[in-house]
Amino acid sequence: MDSETLARLDIDAGLGVNAPGPVVTTSDGGVVGDDAEVIEQSAHWEGPFVEFDKYGEATGAEYVRCSGCGREVLEGREETATHSADCPNS
After folding, report:
1. Residue 53, strand partner residues
2. Which of 3, 25, 31, 43 has a C-alpha 20 to 30 A away from that of 52?
């Protein structure tokens, strides 16, 4: 799901905090729970974030998010990202 869609969803911030199951990610790329990792941020790219499949399992890939428009791309492929027309980072 892209960040715009996630931002429109009404999800309880505490969802999954005490769940023994898969890690629940938040719309800002963080992780709900005690083992949350601090994510570094650059001037243009936020992340890297762990990619999860639809079952909540880590895929082994990581992605980054543009700090200007929120577009996401696999880490290492930032130069291939297509930014929104009004993105200050394009």
Report:
1. none
2. 43
Counting every residue, how long is the chain? 90
Q: Is residue 90 part of a domain?
A: no
Task: Give the Cβ contact number of residue 76 at 10 Å.
Answer: 12
Give the chain's domain count: 1
Which residues lie below 8 Å from residue 50, measured CB to CB, with a gap of 6+? 25, 58, 62
Instruction: State pTM to two decimals.
Output: 0.50
Residue 16 in domain: yes
pLDDT tens for 12-48 read: 666 655 655 555 555 555 555 545 454 444 558 899 9
Question: Does some domain include residue 86?
Answer: no
